[in-house]
Amino acid sequence: MERYHLTEGDSGKHDGRPVIYDGVAIKIYEDEDPSRILVQFTDGITAYNMIKKARIAGKGRINNAVSAMLAGHLERGGVRTPFVRLVSADSQLCTKTDVIPVEMIVRNVIAGSMARRLGIEEGIRPGNTIYDLCYKSNDLGDPLINDHHAVALGLVTYAELQEMYSMTEKINSILLPLFKGIGIDLVDFKVEFGRLPDGSLMLADHITPDNARFWDIRTGERLDKDRFRRDMGKVGDAYREIHSRLLSVSPFFGSDISDIRQMSGH
């Protein structure tokens, strides 16, 4: 993994680059290398399919750092991620894939939409890991689908789904003990996958407090986007806490952590 030394306050300026995706929380730009993209994490935050929007100061930099650290950890565990290297405090270079419009949600603890949909109390830990599929469509509100829907819609093949489940299970098995070691319960998270030119699949997503639920094991405090969804306040503090705890185990991440430390001022 290449290293790029950052200085505190260094932010990406990508004027002139063609924009591939102009989202509230993430912007994606073309790179000189057609096999790569530039991903910029912004301070924007949304909930309920863009109905609720705000800006959280410093969130983009935190998500960039958290994403990079977790990508490095997954790579060492044998999971291919899109992360190539850090480019600035809020941006990273990533491998370009043909993203499959299927979102996979991993649930280790009952929370959020599943609790509401099925009338189950939040916080219950099922005896099995639950995997949900959602069709990525803003117009339809990312509806819940099953394997057969995904294949019938031409989104994936059964063989690809099997591989996606296998990779997601591996990601979960790698991240659960990592977060437990820093006192965090990995409640659930979302991932997407993409196809490479040779047809193989790889993770095409970034795991951050924007798309995962992190609860403090001791207190049950929520340290993720639920604080924004539910008007709980201290959203930035929660994101910084996740960042800080991951930095606290920096020797485990290896020498490339120096980039993250410089970026965060640690």
Walk me through the topology:
Layout: E1 19-22, E2 26-30, E3 36-41, E4 44-47, E5 52-55, H1 59-76, E6 83-88, E7 91-95, E8 98-99, E9 102-107, H2 112-118, E10 130-135, E11 144-145, H3 147-152, H4 158-181, E12 184-191, E13 193-195, E14 201-203, E15 212-216, H5 226-229, H6 235-248, H7 250-253, H8 257-264
Antiparallel strand pairs: 1-2, 2-3, 3-7, 4-5, 6-7, 8-13, 9-10, 9-12, 10-11, 12-15, 13-14
Helix pairs in contact: 1-6, 1-8
Pathway: Purine metabolism; IMP biosynthesis via de novo pathway; 5-amino-1-(5-phospho-D-ribosyl)imidazole-4-carboxamide from 5-amino-1-(5-phospho-D-ribosyl)imidazole-4-carboxylate: step 1/2
Domain SAICAR synthetase/ADE2 N-terminal: 20-245
Protein name: Phosphoribosylaminoimidazole-succinocarboxamide synthase
Query: DSSP helix count?
Result: 8
Strand portion: 25-35%
Q: Give the CATH superfamily of the largest domain.
A: ATP-grasp fold, B domain
Main sheet, how many strands, which sense, barrel?
5 strands, antiparallel
| Strand line-up of the largest beta sheet | 1-2-3-7-6
- CATH architectural label of the largest domain: 2-Layer Sandwich
Could you estimate the helical fraction of the residues in percent?
Answer: 25-40%
> What sort of overall outline do the alpha carbons produce when their principal axes are compared?
globular
Computed over alpha carbons, the radius of gyration is 18 Å
How many domain regions?
Answer: 2
* Highest CATH level, the class of the largest domain: Alpha Beta
Kindly state the number of beta strands: 15
| Helix-and-strand structural type | alpha+beta
- Low-confidence runs (pLDDT<50, min 5 residues)? 1-10
CATH domain topology of the largest domain: D-amino Acid Aminotransferase, Chain A, domain 1
What pattern of helices and strands is seen along the backbone?
A: EEEEEHEEEEHEEHHEEEEHHHH
Give the termini separation. Answer: 21 Å
Average of the residue pLDDT scores: 91
